[in-house]
């Protein structure tokens, strides 16, 4: 199972991860990205990591 980490200091709440994730794992809450679903739903595809222009998301396999 993949693990997704969000660096809140880098996150600007742009919602690129929300749009990029094929399973809808993220939501924006308080102008920051948050995990909105069970991490077990993550496909480990790194789409969110690629979509984040701020480098705030890291996917660890």
TrEMBL record:
Keywords for this protein: 4Fe-4S, Electron transport, Iron, Iron-sulfur, Metal-binding, Repeat, Transport
GO MF entry, a single one: 4 iron, 4 sulfur cluster binding
Pfam families cross-referenced by the UniProt entry: Fer4_10
Domain 4Fe-4S ferredoxin-type span(s) in chain numbering: 2-31, 33-61
PROSITE patterns assigned: 4FE4S_FER_1, 4FE4S_FER_2
Protein name (Swiss-Prot/TrEMBL): Ferredoxin-1
Organism: groundwater metagenome
């Amino acid at each position: 199972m993949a693990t997704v980490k969000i660096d809140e200091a880098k996150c600007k709440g742009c919602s690129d991860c929300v749009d990029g994730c094929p399973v809808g794992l993220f939501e924006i809450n308080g102008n920051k990205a948050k995990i909105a679903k069970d991490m077990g739903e993550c496909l480990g595809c790194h789409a969110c990591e690629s979509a984040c222009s701020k480098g705030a998301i890291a996917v660890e396999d």
